[in-house]
Amino acid sequence: MNENEFAKGKAFAKGETFAKDTAFAKDTAFAKDTAFAKTFAALRRRSGITQRELGERLGVSNRAVSKWETGLALPSTENVYKLAKIFNVPVDYFFGSELQSEIRDEPSPTGMKSLTELYLVGRGPSSSHTIAPERASRMFREKNPTADRFKVILYGSLAKTGIGHGTDRVIKATLAPVSCDIIFNTTELDLPHPNTMDMIAFRQGAQIDRIRVVSTGGGRFENDKYLLPEPPDVYPVSSFEKIAKECRANNLRLWQYVERAEGSGIWDYLSEIWRGMKASIERGLADEGILPGGLGVQKKAKQLLCREHIDESAETRENRMVCAYAFAVSEQNACAETIVTAPTCGSSGVLPAVLYYQQKKRDYTDMEILRALAAGGVVGNLIKTNASISGSECGCQAEIGSACAMAAASLAELFGLDLDKIEYAAEIAIEHHLGLTCDPICGLVQIPCIERNAVAAMRAINAVSLASFLVDSRKISLDKVIHVMKETGLDISRQYKETAEGGLAKLKFGQ
Ligand code: SF4
């Protein structure tokens, strides 16, 4: 819809309520029609815009938006035109049955990518705010070898928490020695994704290239100009139910299913990943001092490792050690050191902590650990494919909740539990993170992120214990919880999705 059409719509309506507008409906009969409500709700969810965010854009309360979705009220004609513009659909789209069925029947993903797309070695503190911008900058630099200046405009979450996450620093370092101006645009709301940036290249004052990049989570990015080779789906299905069916039919454990799909080369890759995880723990345990960023947060991994209580029980010791390992990785991440995404940088401490503790305590071989990583990877992949692993898309439930589910599945595999128990452990782990918000203080991946990794590591261990006792009485599948996680994430207000505008992030430090 162009501006003229929009203006026409404004003149047409002049603030009258949509229900009164005879061009669209015959008085109150239309108000009773739920077609608009269903289509509107589906479009809003698909766009990822929350009710509150939409309300802010239209200058109405989120309660009003909620009423439109439930069919209790209808927007003014002016707002219908605005909604059509926001969702990039014709106005008629709201009333056509064809569209509604298209949205309701939105196809589920058919397959999943390799675990080599999930576990990545890179520098923290954020897969979406540092790893993906670094990769995008490298690509843009290679596409423009003659550029003598770059400009990068950060929007949405990248603008709001970019300084705390070091997005500007990593972009400048990657584009160096060519100079780069970074603009933080926090006012633009009409974005294709919460993590959007524009990259512009100049030569002798003239613009020679411009692309729009979105950082889609877990270190991956897309852009609107250069065709990047799309990694193939190596898994033919994307639900735990179907994977379990295949495993049962062929008497496979999850790691064997992974090997079948990925080929035996996956073990070399996972071996490198495990080396990276162990290295980040060991570096973190040896590190001391204050984390960068200005919050004055002390590194505590070494303290946790060394401060043994005189009468410490075995359970307390286990908690202390697991937390020490989780702190070690998370503190390295906060220092922008090299870690492994599992599934993201912010949540990179959970899975290594759980597996490292078990290897130390029970002498599991590296191969047994790699098999556990494969099982946890399947769960992470399912969440990434069917929901999100991005804090800016779905809140911290998508990062720490996913990491906890991966750790629980890995541990259950390590313990040799059956498929039902592996699924149940992962389901418990993610279920009790539903709704968890992302609210990092000052946009730094420190408070609450570091402790949150430790708590999730302990929770993963508990989830496995609970699953092994209660599996026969479970009612909810992992696939269903992943679906609910996505729905919940879409409904979480923007302030709680890596914008550092809500929750703990609103506290002045020290309060
Ligand atoms: S609060 Fe959670 S999602 Fe947000 S930055 Fe911290 S770890 Fe990542």
The DSSP helix count reads 23
Helix content: 40-55%
Amount of beta strand: 5-15%
Tell me the quaternary state. single chain
The unique ligands bound to this protein are: iron/sulfur cluster
Q: What is the averaged pLDDT score?
A: 87
What Rg is obtained from the alpha carbons, in whole angstroms?
A: 24 Å
Which of globular, elongated, flat, extended, rod-shaped describes the shape?
Answer: globular
Distance between the termini: 48 Å
User: Sheet with the most strands?
Assistant: 5 strands, mixed
Topology, element by element:
Blueprint: H1 3-13, H2 27-31, H3 35-47, H4 51-58, H5 62-70, H6 77-87, H7 97-104, E1 121-123, H8 127-143, E2 149-155, H9 156-160, H10 162-165, H11 167-175, E3 179-185, E4 196-203, E5 206-217, E6 220-223, H12 240-250, H13 254-262, H14 266-286, H15 301-306, H16 314-334, E7 338-340, H17 350-362, H18 366-386, H19 391-394, H20 400-414, H21 419-431, H22 449-470, H23 478-491
Helix pairs in contact: 1-6, 3-7, 4-5, 8-11, 13-18, 14-16, 14-18, 16-17, 16-22, 17-20, 17-22, 18-20, 20-21, 20-22, 21-22, 21-23
Bound molecules: iron/sulfur cluster.
Iron/sulfur cluster (SF4) binds at residues 346-347, 391, 396, 399-400, 438-440, 445, 448-449, 452, 498.
